[in-house]
């Protein structure tokens, strides 16, 4: 079969022939792959930078963690791969498949799951969002951040504040449901002042952070209390595009009613992952089929993967490989 294979961490994936995957037990099933999204997770695993990166294999490893494809009986599904998914065929686990509704294309369906997991899981299980709450999304101009805006609104957020550096994309987020934007291109003092005004008018209940780094330090600094009662805040770290480490004063943790947690692979419980496949993804696929969720994608054929792997994808878009 045709597949995209990596032989050594950090090297460019190669397009070519690879042996068909073989089912090992009754819990596995073969799918014919039609579309696969390229995510920051996939790139991090290939480079070896992501904490879930496995061992190298001199014979090569097909890359890709999930896919849209067809079962032998013709059922179209989204599924997590047990073998690599950027290939003509892949082995998937029966318990981690979601049948797709009519009205959603392969490429749109492929683009969504990583972003849904990166937003809905944090909102539902870490932040435990309640209707009427105010949400701050730090780094909302990316694909997952844009998804988070729409899902937060769907879950009942009263007000959504977003941050980012791309001024044009920031403005477009108002059309997706954001109520107020904060440009991270401004001086630190201006950003903190804007956050303080927001906090006074509509106290922030939930913070989803896709950036970490310096912008997280600014957010923590504005949250710092002065010894009085403070508004409870649930801060969820999801990504670290701006840097993996920050300086965090212990005084901030002692001076504010703050719940700090992370949402990602390894942090979710088995029951939470089960609900992702049984409830969350089916609901989001249906919303997209009804044109109630908007996504911005760019598609490429499988054979073009090598030249497009390191290409700059416009802010807020997801690259989808069509097989």
Automatic annotation (TrEMBL):
One Pfam family cited in the UniProt record for this chain: ADH_zinc_N
One GO molecular-function entry: oxidoreductase activity
Domain Enoyl reductase (ER): 16-320
Domain of life according to the entry: Bacteria
InterPro entries given in the database record: ADH-like_C, ER, GroES-like_sf, NAD(P)-bd_dom_sf, Zn-ADH-like_protein
PANTHER family: SHORT-CHAIN DEHYDROGENASE/REDUCTASE, ZINC-CONTAINING ALCOHOL DEHYDROGENASE
Name of the protein in question: Alcohol dehydrogenase, zinc-binding domain protein
Source organism per UniProt: Flavobacterium aquidurense
């Amino acid at each position: 079969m045709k597949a995209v294979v990596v032989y050594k961490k950090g090297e460019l994936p190669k397009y070519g022939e690879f042996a068909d995957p073989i089912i090992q037990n009754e819990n596995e099933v073969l799918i014919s792959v039609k579309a696969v999204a390229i995510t920051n997770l996939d790139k991090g695993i290939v480079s070896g930078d992501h904490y879930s990166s496995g061992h190298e294999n001199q014979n090569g490893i097909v890359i890709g963690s999930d896919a849209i494809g067809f079962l032998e009986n013709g059922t179209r599904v989204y599924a997590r791969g047990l073998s690599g998914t950027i290939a003509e065929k892949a082995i998937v686990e029966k318990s981690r498949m979601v049948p797709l509704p009519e009205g959603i294309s392969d490429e749109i369906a492929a683009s969504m799951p990583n972003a849904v997991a990166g937003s809905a899981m944090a909102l539902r299980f870490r932040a435990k969002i309640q209707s009427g709450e105010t949400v701050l999304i730090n780094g909302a101009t990316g694909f997952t951040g844009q998804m988070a805006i729409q899902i937060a609104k769907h879950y009942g957020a009263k007000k959504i504040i977003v941050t980012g550096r791309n001024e044009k994309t920031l403005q477009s987020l108002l059309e997706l449901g954001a109520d107020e934007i904060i440009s991270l291109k401004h001086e630190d003092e201006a950003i903190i002042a804007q956050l303080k005004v927001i906090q006074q008018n509509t106290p922030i209940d939930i913070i989803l952070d896709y950036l970490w780094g310096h912008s997280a330090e600014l957010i923590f600094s504005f949250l710092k209390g002065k010894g009085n009662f403070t508004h409870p805040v649930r801060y969820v770290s999801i990504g670290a595009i701006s840097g993996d480490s920050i300086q965090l004063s212990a005084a901030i943790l002692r001076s504010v009613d703050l719940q700090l947690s992370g949402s990602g692979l390894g942090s979710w419980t088995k029951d939470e992952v089960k609900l992702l496949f049984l409830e969350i993804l089916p609901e989001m696929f249906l919303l997209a089929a009804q044109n109630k969720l908007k996504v911005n994608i760019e598609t490429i054929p499988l054979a073009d993967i090598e030249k497009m792997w390191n290409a700059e994808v416009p802010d807020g878009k997801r690259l989808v490989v069509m097989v």
